[in-house]
Structure formats: structure tokens, C-alpha cells
Amino acid sequence: MSVSRVGLIGAGAIGRAHLVGAAQAEGVEIVGIADPNVASRALAEEFSIPWFADHRALVDEMKLDGAIVATPNALHLPISLELIGAGVGVLVEKPIADTVKEALRLARTAADANVPLLVGHHRRHNSIIRTARSLVRDGKLGRLVCVSVLATFLKPDAYFNEAWRRTAAAGPVLINLIHEIDLLRFVCGEIASLHAMTSNAVRGFDVEDTVATVLQLENGAVATITLSDTAASPWSWDTASGENPSFARHPVESHFISGTEGSVALPSLRMWHYAGERGWFHPLADEQVRHAAANPYVEQMRHFGAVIRKEELPLCDGFDGARTLEITASVRRSAESGEVVRFK
Ligand SMILES: NC(=O)c1ccc[n+]([C@@H]2O[C@H](COP(=O)([O-])OP(=O)(O)OC[C@H]3O[C@@H](n4cnc5c(N)ncnc54)[C@H](O)[C@@H]3O)[C@@H](O)[C@H]2O)c1
């Protein structure tokens, strides 16, 4: 198998996860880091690869096939456009861009140039989520009826010492809810409309600390997502799935998906159905659905290598990433206006 040469642009928290993922992934090698923060030089030394203060030097000197853009959000668009201009395949972190307009510009530029563009919605590469998607798509739950998502957790007070995290540029809608919206689209189907309410009553910042969203899917199912970064609670994908080892893990469920023939809870993949007579007077049987556990960051890097070599199509391309951003951005719009937002 040929190995794609990849550069890492932005070596912060998620940049490190990509370095660790790439070290275990087949067909891809991170050959250099670009980050103006000199502290990232130590990370380059740890992985025995060259460090550059500027991404242009990394691109010019390292003969890249692809690059990961893991910088602050505002740089996603300009850096990705430069990479596409140089014919370098891009894995851009979520959100794909700051605005839907920018996201669509990036998606169109990549498509017109025929340069691969993958958006870093890493949960799509998680085998639990992929198994749940197959259960839904293969009709194992019957017709999809409803979905309940809990994403309630407590960010420590120190997290908010950085001023931008208390403003509308951050907040749990843009930082956390975007993962739930993308998961819902990926597993259960396209979203037709939504209504949302937000609250900042606990932390009192300009930006929300809690949000409740009601969504209608195109297939007729309805969903709710309740999310808070100020709740002392174990019920969230991040603290229940073990996907990110930095979080304490609790063996609880966060996602409940129900159809006419059965239901499944995540992350356990415990499925419920009527073995005999149907209806609430009769017991449901439960079954543990098996899946081949794999690290989604490793799988995302393997996939990126294959996308660069045009062996696979991006699991989340620019237009898909733009759609998730559009729906996520509309949550605040609905909360402010009190109106239902409908999508074309
Ligand atoms: N997929 C996920 O689960 C996930 C998780 C966390 C963050 N993210 C996304 O990843 C991105 C980075 O988030 P983070 O938490 O790692 O942030 P971070 O602040 O820890 O890291 C960002 C890094 O980018 C560097 N940087 C700034 N300007 C740069 C430039 N011009 N060129 C190169 N590097 C530059 C900074 O010095 C810093 O090291 C954000 O878009 C965020 O939304 C995704």
C-alpha cells in the first residue's frame, strides 16, 4: 500500500489526537507540524518530525499529499483554500468554517479543483455509531419513530477563564451540539426542521450554557437533544463512550433510538424488541449488538489517506459539513426568534 504524506497545521489539543491516530493508521504518515506557537516544537520532537512556524514552509518543503487543518476556526477557510490551490488534500476540523457561506465556498472550491476535502466529524468513524447507522438503515428497528439524545456534562470553571469561551464565538451549541446534529443526520437521516430554546441562567455569560432542541426528520421521526455544559451529570457521549480518554468514563447511555420493531441505546448498543407478543403488557427482550471496536481517530486518519489517494470518497465532504453547520447555526436563530426553522 502506498503511504500518503500528511502535514499537521495547528498542533493543539485535537492536533495531538491526530498525531496519535496517524501513528497507528495504515497508509498515512504525518511528516511535519506547522504551528506558530513554539511550545508545539516539543510535540514535533516527541514524534521525531520537523517543526515549522508557518504552514506555507511545511507545504513547500515536505512535498505533502495532504494536510490536516486543526487551527482555531477562523483559519479553517483561508488555510484550506491555500492548500486546495496547491493541490494538497485537506482534512479540516469541525466546524468546516465560521459561516455557512464560507463553508459552501470551501466545498465548491475543492469540488471544482477536484482536490479531496474531508471534514473532521470524527464520530462518523466510530464503530458504535456506524453499527447504529446500519441498524437504522437496514430496518432492524422497523420504521424509525423517535430519538432522544442527552448531552449533559460539567465543564470545569477554569475552562471559561479564556474570554472567548464566554462569548457567542464559542458556547456549547457551536462546540458540542454540532457533534450531536451530525450524529443524528448520519445515523437517523436528514433533518427537516427544528425548534430550540437556550438558557444562560446558571453561568450568566453572554453565550448559552444549556439548550433544548426539538427536531423533525425528513423520514417523519422526531428527535430531542438536551445539552448542557453546566450540569453535574454522566449522560453524554463524551463521558459515556470512552472515545476520548481525557474524560472520566461512566457506563451509562446517552442516545436512545426507537422504531416500530425495536429500540437501541448508545453507546452500549443494547437492543430491545418483542420476542413474542407485542405491546406494553408483554416483556421486551434485550440483546447485545456486537461491533468491532476501533479508535475513530485512527480510522479517520486511515480514511483520510485513502481519500487523498482517491481510493475512497470522503465520509463527510465539504457540502455535508456545511449542512451540519447550517443546522447547528439555526439552533440559536430559533432560540432568539422563537420560530421553527425549516430546511430545504
Ligand atoms: N473533532 C473533535 O472532536 C474536535 C475536538 C476539539 C477541537 N476540534 C476542532 O479543532 C480545532 C482546534 O481546536 P483545539 O481544541 O485543538 O484548539 P487549540 O487551541 O488547542 O489548538 C489550536 C492550535 O492552532 C495553532 N495555530 C494558531 N494559528 C495558527 C496558524 N496560523 N497556523 C498553524 N497553527 C496555528 C495554535 O497555536 C494552537 O496550537 C477547532 O476548529 C476545534 O473546533 C475538534
Automatic annotation (TrEMBL):
<dbReference type="InterPro" id="IPR051450">
    <property type="entry name" value="Gfo/Idh/MocA_Oxidoreductases"/>
</dbReference>
<feature type="domain" description="GFO/IDH/MocA-like oxidoreductase">
    <location>
        <begin position="129"/>
        <end position="252"/>
    </location>
</feature>
<dbReference type="Pfam" id="PF01408">
    <property type="entry name" value="GFO_IDH_MocA"/>
</dbReference>
<feature type="domain" description="Gfo/Idh/MocA-like oxidoreductase N-terminal">
    <location>
        <begin position="5"/>
        <end position="121"/>
    </location>
</feature>
<dbReference type="GO" id="GO:0000166">
    <property type="term" value="F:nucleotide binding"/>
</dbReference>
<dbReference type="Pfam" id="PF22725">
    <property type="entry name" value="GFO_IDH_MocA_C3"/>
</dbReference>
<dbReference type="InterPro" id="IPR055170">
    <property type="entry name" value="GFO_IDH_MocA-like_dom"/>
</dbReference>
<dbReference type="GO" id="GO:0033712">
    <property type="term" value="F:1,5-anhydro-D-fructose reductase (1,5-anhydro-D-mannitol-forming) activity"/>
</dbReference>
<keyword id="KW-0560">Oxidoreductase</keyword>
<dbReference type="InterPro" id="IPR036291">
    <property type="entry name" value="NAD(P)-bd_dom_sf"/>
</dbReference>
<protein>
    <submittedName>
        <fullName>1,5-anhydro-D-fructose reductase</fullName>
        <ecNumber>1.1.1.292</ecNumber>
    </submittedName>
</protein>
<dbReference type="InterPro" id="IPR000683">
    <property type="entry name" value="Gfo/Idh/MocA-like_OxRdtase_N"/>
</dbReference>
